[in-house]
Amino acid sequence: MPLTVWILGDQLLSPHPALQSLEKQVLRQEIILLLIESREQAQRLPYHAKKLVLLYSAMRHYADGLRAAGYRVDYRVASNITEAITSHWQEFRPNRLVTMAASSVRGRRFQQSLAQKLGIATHIIPNSQFLSGVYDPLPDVEPGQLVRQEQFYRGMRRQFKLLMDDQGRPVGGTWNYDQKNRQPLPKDLTPPEMIRFEPDALTKQVMVEVGQFDHLTGSAAGFDLAVTREGAQQAADDFYTHRLPYFGTYEDAMRQSAPVIFHSKLAAYLNIGLLTPLELVRAAEGCYYDGTAEINNVEGFIRQVIGWREYMYWQYQRLMPGLGAENYWGSANPLPTFFWSGETRMNCLRQVIQRVLDAGYVHHIERLMLLSNFCLLADIHPDQVYDWFSSAFIDAYEWVMAPNVYGMGLYADGGQIATKPYIASANYINKMSDYCLACSFDKNKRTGEHSCPFNFLYWHFLLKHQDKLRKNYRMARMLHNLKFLDDDEKAAVQAQAQRFVGAMDN
Question: 41: domain range?
Answer without folding.
Answer: 3-127
